[in-house]
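U., I forgot to send this yesterday:
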Amino acid sequence: MLRLNSDVKTDNAMVITCFPTVGMVSSIVGHYLIDHLDLEYVGGVVDPRLPSISLIQKGVPLPPIRAYAGEPKCTLEGCTQIILLMSELVVPEQLVHEIVWKLFEWSKAEGIKAGVVIDAFAKAGMKGNLNGADPVVDYDDTEEIDLVGIGANEEMRKKLVSMGIPLLEQGVIKGINAAILGEAQRRGLGLMSILVEADTRFPDARAAAVLIETLNELLPAIELDHIPLLEEAEQLEAQLKAMMEGAASAIGEGQGSPNSMLYG
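Result:
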């Protein structure tokens, strides 16, 4: 299912997942981390039921769900490296539980230390366009861009509070991010989700920048400066739109709406 290069180190790694979110926040964060943490492409998820498409970036064909790895230090005790899983593809509902189950079995076998799920929710009064899979969050709306957190075990909930991220008191999470959180809670694993308030009308680089600021608490060895992200936002947004438009065309007619598979 998850196939990585044989030389990838996984012991005591922290896995960061960036699956489709409101305002394309996860895609923006994922691409930013790849560039600024010097993460290398190391493989991806293989399943014959996924669309047979490749996302092309700088001349390189990439699978729809792909993996990157590197060795920036993190603050969780014993964590020495990062594995990033990301996709612009909305994982089909019928595949979610099987993919999540196999990812957790892989993480158990490979000695994964912890996990962080990057997510976003629609601003108050707005509706996301993840075909009903976007989070429904009851939160204290302020003038600033708000963050909330979910911890799969008590250690992660305490970590979120220490980072100044309020715990989500009430809400509904759907799709693959929900399945990841639910399975981590069942297993008592050290996994957290950080959700940021985002605008649904366009790729929200400002929301992504706020979330990246909080990741400095987990990755202090490398200061993730969010200011360049704002400066690069226009170019990054154009690249993401082009990638997803190309993927939507590749999915083609006769397989339902492109947005049933692809967020954009």
